[in-house]
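Researcher: Before we compare anything, I want clean individual predictions. No alignment, no superposition, just each chain on its own. First chain goes here; please echo the sequence and then give the C-alpha cells.
Model: Echoing the first chain and its structure:
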Amino acid sequence: MGDFGLQFAFGFNQLIGLSLEGNLSFGESFDREDSDLRYALKGGLDFNFKRRYNVPLGLIVGYSMISQPELVYTDEGTALITSFKLTYTGTSDFLIGLESGLMSIPLVEVDQKSNFLATMFSVRYYFN
C-alpha cells in the first residue's frame, strides 16, 4: 500500500486559524483481492478566545470526507464527518475538552447513509 499526504495550517490573526489535510492512498483494504485509490480530505477552523479576549476557551469546527476504510470501518464509499470541539485553554500543560462529531457513513446493504453522533470528554496533560 502506498500513501501520500499534505498538511497546511495558517493563522489569520490571534483569534482564527485554518488547518487543511489531504491524504491519498492506493492498495488493498478490507478486501484483500482488490486494490483501490482512497482519500481523506479534512479541514477545520480554530478559534482561540484566550489570545484575543483573555477567555480561556478554544473552539474547533471541522469537516471531513473520508473513503479510507481503516479510518471509518466501512469499504462502501465516502463517509462525511462534521466535528466540534470546545476546550479549556487556561494552562499550557493541561487541556480539558468536549468533542462531538456527526458521522454519515455508508453501510453494507443499507439504502441510505447511516448517521451517528459521537460525543467524547477528553483530558490531556502534557509533560515537559
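Researcher: Okay. Second chain, same rules.
Model: Second chain and its structure:
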Amino acid sequence: MSIKKINFKNAIKEYYDREIRVIQNLNLDEINEAMNAIYKTYEKKGTIYVCGNGGSAATASHMQNDFNKGISEYVDNKFRFYCLNDNYPTVMAIANDIGYEEVFRFQLINKINKNDLFIGISGSGNSKNVLNAAMYAKECGIKVIGITGYKGGKLKEIADYKMHVAEEDMQIDEDIHMTFDHMMMKIFYNFLTKEKITGNNK
C-alpha cells in the first residue's frame, strides 16, 4: 500500500516566517537586563534556581546543563544553576504529600541566600507552582527573571527582569525560550573565555 506524499512546504515556511517575526520583535533591552542579572549572580557565586512545567521543565533542565557543564567546563568560576525539576523523587513526594503547587517553593524554603537568583519559565505566565516559588523568592529578597509567552500572565507582572515572547502560540514561545538558553550560553562562553565556540566546543 502506497501512502500519498504530502507537500508541507507552505506550512513549514509559514511556521518559520512567524518565528522570525517574533524574534525580530523581542525586547533586547529587557533581555540584556536579565543577562546582566545572571552575570551578577555568577560573579557573586550565587545559586541560580530555575524551574518550569512540561516543555518549560525541559528548557530549565537544559539550561542547567548548558551553564553547569557547557560553560563551566572552561572557566574557573563555575555557574551554580539548580533545576528544581530534576530531583524526581523529591518533586513527586512534595506533589503527593503536600500538593503540586508547592513542588518548587518547598525546595527553596530556608535555602535562598542574598546573592541568589530565581528564573521561572512559564508559557502562560500563570503556572501556580512557578508563581509560588517566584513570590517566595521575592519575599526572601532575591530577584526574579520571568521567561514567559502569550501576554506574560502574573509571572511577567511580578518579575524583576523579563524575557518575554509576545506570541499566542505555545510551540513558538517554547522554541524561543530554548533559543534564549543557547543564545546566553554562547554569549557568556565567548565573554568569559574570550574565544569563539567552534564545533564541539574544543
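Researcher: What stands out in the second chain?
Model: The domain at 10-193 is CATH 3.40.50.10490 (Rossmann fold). Additionally, The CA atoms of residues 26 and 91 lie 33 Å apart.
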